[in-house]
């Protein structure tokens, strides 16, 4: 009986180690992609981003406009706004997440401009039926910041 329970525990521990390795790899990919992206920001944009992050959007902040592009995150392509929202606001943001620019943001309503705002506090996270939001336990949720 002991050897049977020990055998049953081994696969679980192995899966946990593999899951931990995958998590570490995802975190490394996120850090690497973010570092490469942030290095390309001009000083003014970086200052605006730092202000937004340090105040958690509590102080009205300016847009951080960057060229509309796709960034490589692991084996996926993501937008700059996804990257920074994941990094600074919602660490659990899935790749399938829908982000919507708030009305005071220059990206609001402009789906095809050459530039896009990547200030993470200029976006709301949309969750629909069947998508679980870890903050509320599920359902429809619109997370936005009224500090502007």
Automatic annotation (TrEMBL):
Q: Can you say where in the cell this protein is located?
A: Nucleus
SUPFAM superfamilies in alphabetical order: SMAD MH1 domain
Going by the entry's taxonomy, the superkingdom of the source organism is recorded as Eukaryota
Tell whether Transcription is among the UniProt keywords.
yes
Give the primary localization class: nucleus
Which CDD domains does this entry report, sorted A to Z?
A: MH1_SMAD_6 (cd10493)
Is GTP-binding one of the keywords UniProt gives this record?
A: no
Which SMART domains does the UniProt record give?
A: DWA
Matches recorded under Gene3D superfamilies: SMAD MH1 domain
- Domain MH1, first and last residues per copy: 6-132
User: Which residue intervals make up region (Disordered)?
Assistant: 1-25
Q: What is this protein called?
A: MH1 domain-containing protein
- Name the species this protein comes from: Xiphophorus couchianus (Monterrey platyfish)
């Amino acid at each position: 009986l002991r050897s049977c329970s020990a055998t049953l525990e081994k696969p679980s521990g192995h899966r946990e180690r593999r899951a931990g390795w995958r998590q570490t790899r995802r975190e490394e990919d996120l850090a690497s992609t973010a570092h490469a992206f942030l290095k390309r920001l001009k000083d003014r944009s970086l200052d605006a981003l730092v202000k937004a992050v340090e105040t958690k959007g509590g102080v009205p902040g300016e847009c951080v406009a960057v060229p509309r592009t796709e960034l490589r995150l692991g084996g996926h392509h993501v937008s700059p706004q996804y990257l920074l929202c994941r990094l600074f606001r919602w660490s659990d943001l899935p790749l399938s997440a829908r982000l919507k620019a708030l009305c005071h943001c220059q990206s609001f309503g402009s789906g095809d401009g050459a530039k896009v705002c990547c200030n993470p506090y200029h976006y709301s996270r949309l969750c629909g039926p069947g998508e679980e939001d870890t903050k509320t336990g599920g359902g429809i949720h619109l997370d936005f910041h009224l500090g502007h």
